[in-house]
Amino acid sequence: MDQPLRLGLAGLGTVGTSVIRLLRDHEEALTDRAGRPLRLVAVSARNPNKDRGISLDGLSWHSDPVALASSPDIDCFIELIGGENGVCREATRAALDAGKSVVTANKALLAKHGIELAAAAESGGGVLAFEAAVGGGIPIVKALREALAGNRITRLFGILNGTCNYILTRMEAEGLSFEQCLADAQELGYAEADPSFDIDGLDAAHKLAILTSLAFGVELNKDAIFVEGIASITAEDIAAAEELGYRIKLLAVAQETDSGIEQRVHPTMLPKNSQLARISDVTNAVAVEGDFIGQVVLSGPGAGGDATASAVVGDIVDCARGFRAPPFGRPVASLKPYQRARMRAHPGGYYLRLSVPDRVGAFAAIARAMADGGISLDSIVQRNRPAGAAPRGNPDHLRSVTIITHDTTEQAVRDALGRIEGEGDIVGRPQMIRIEAL
Ligand SMILES: NC(=O)c1ccc[n+]([C@@H]2O[C@H](COP(=O)([O-])OP(=O)(O)OC[C@H]3O[C@@H](n4cnc5c(N)ncnc54)[C@H](OP(=O)(O)O)[C@@H]3O)[C@@H](O)[C@H]2O)c1
């Protein structure tokens, strides 16, 4: 039997404690699979006195994760602290510079500093593994980097944020408001006290940036992603989607276009019978399209301590076996600069919901502005707004107009909405949700 792989683990929270339990529960099988024992020797967290529900007896305690990362007593550093800068970055860098392997679940760190860290792994001779950073327990990183390496990937899309999917699923199933479902998600521990990172789409964008780099061989560029969150989705939108045969999902999409790689995260109406529309609650799913494989869809638990630990330990086993792959699927020097596609050229159908004053001609003016922009309409429906509105016939009385367009471009829709707003034909911000036949 080979020498044990000595592990140092920083971060003893939700994921860190699950990793320790998994390593202990499956010790024998893991030794067999890895061909050598996986030996946890040292840990680091902030509070040495916290009861974490697991025994830390026999492990050396480091209050400084950077010192742990470069300690000669470990071969593999497991970063489960979180954050994009500061100690997680310093510790990861220290381990890689010391030639050690690093396993991390930290998408924020990778989305921001992934290329720098991959270069440090290359020059230090270590491994940078991050299966758990995207899709929790779903093995999408290995799928893109290893199993699908024979393909030219043309598109990938997925539901990458469990919190948003939970909120949208509840809104649809129970007709509840966004605010109610968010409060429930917080109570159940699916959403943070400050949920903005999830509901504004930033968490999904970080994951998408990582997948884009792996799939298309380009440098990471999270700042080039078009991002819209789900906070503006109302029960009315959900009900309209339902009526029309769609479901609203926060979708992350990356695809090749003539003008570069398009990356976007936004609420999307998907046909109810499509595979991704049927992904509910906190489950995640990713579809990948390649020239030889066609389409592959992976789905499963996108978060949670145990599911994430499953991915972390898979990476640790790889390290123990001596498996090495370039972190982003090819050497850093051969990653292409990211060329951003123009979002405004994005073709597709659109759902629009406008608040229109109840006056003669307003409805017709909207239909005309659409026609003037060359936008052909699949349907246009006028509804009275729910209770609280002024009496009918009064311009203060608002009607809700929902429009479904045939395929058009983002630019054409935005121009038409600009004209309608400019003419004073609507009140407040229009709602615009893209429709995709995915
Ligand atoms: N939770 C999930 O479902 C999930 C899923 C996929 C990926 N991830 C990623 O996994 C990582 C960990 O997430 P988590 O949910 O386990 O976080 P968490 O529960 O908040 O745990 C974070 C841990 O890091 C420790 N820590 C914080 N600052 C530290 C410092 N300066 N020095 C040493 N230790 C420090 C904390 O110590 P104390 O306990 O002493 O405060 C805590 O044990 C993040 O990158 C996250 O994005 C999480």
Structural features, described:
With 438 residues, the chain is an alpha/beta fold. Helix content is 35%, strand content 26%. The chain is built from 14 helices and 17 strands. Strands 7, 8, 9, 10, 11, 12, 13, 14, 15, 16 and 17 form an eleven-stranded mixed β-sheet that branches. The chain has a six-stranded parallel β-sheet with strand order 3-2-1-4-5-6, sandwiched between helices. A hairpin with a 2-residue loop joins strand 9 (246-257) and strand 10 (260-271). Helix 1 (14-25) packs across helix 12 and helix 13 (362-372) packs antiparallel against helix 14 (410-422). The model has no long low-confidence stretch (mean pLDDT 94). It binds NADP nicotinamide-adenine-dinucleotide phosphate. NADP nicotinamide-adenine-dinucleotide phosphate binds next to helix 1. Keywords: Amino-acid biosynthesis, Methionine biosynthesis, NADP, Oxidoreductase, Threonine biosynthesis. This is Homoserine dehydrogenase. It comes from Afifella marina DSM 2698.
What's the structural blueprint in terms of helices and strands?
Layout: E1 5-10, H1 14-25, H2 27-34, E2 38-44, E3 60-62, H3 65-69, E4 76-79, H4 87-97, E5 101-104, H5 107-124, E6 128-129, H6 140-147, E7 153-159, H7 162-174, H8 178-187, H9 196-199, H10 202-216, E8 226-227, H11 235-244, E9 246-257, E10 260-271, E11 283-290, E12 294-301, H12 305-321, E13 347-357, H13 362-372, E14 377-384, E15 398-405, E16 408-409, H14 410-422, E17 427-435
Parallel strand pairs: 1-2, 1-4, 2-3, 4-5, 5-6, 8-10, 10-17
Antiparallel strand pairs: 7-9, 7-11, 9-10, 11-12, 13-15, 13-16, 13-17, 14-15
Bound molecules: NADP nicotinamide-adenine-dinucleotide phosphate.
NADP nicotinamide-adenine-dinucleotide phosphate is lined by residues 10-16, 44-47, 50, 65, 80-82, 87, 105-107, 132, 136, 303-304, 308.
